[in-house]
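--- STAGE predict ---
source: upstream dedup step, 1 unique chain passed
mode: sequence only
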Amino acid sequence: MKKCLCLIIALSLSLLSIGMAYAEGDTSSMVYDTDEYSIENHIGTRINYDFIESVDLRVRSTGNEKIKVELDVDTYETMEKLGFSSLKVQRWDGNVWVTDAEITNQYSYTTQTFGYSHTFTGLYSGALYRVKVTLFAKRAIGETQSMTVTSSVINCH
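--- STAGE serialize ---
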């Protein structure tokens, strides 16, 4: 019984320390070499003004201080304008996310799909990175939708 109680206390303290690490911004336990972030809205749960059907954001370190970002966006119908207003590659400096690279205003017109791929170079090897993208869709009748998606944290090689 005492061994069981000691084990429960030890496990509780471990879980408490993990929770505190997240609260203090420690990203070390959330680091990946690659990340794939996907969102999919099913037509059965569609709400008004929700144009974006799915987002596929893939982020990976390709070595030599490079990170490759691939983005695919699908909509329920043809959009007048579809793409992103901002794509940021951000590095964790120990306190805050610092933007090391940014691409803005990449769009396709009169389309239902948008695809984008770019390899960022000159990044810091061993640093922790994430990608933050602000998507934009505009229907022909003028209605717009904007949403921001953020990848998990990856380690740059």
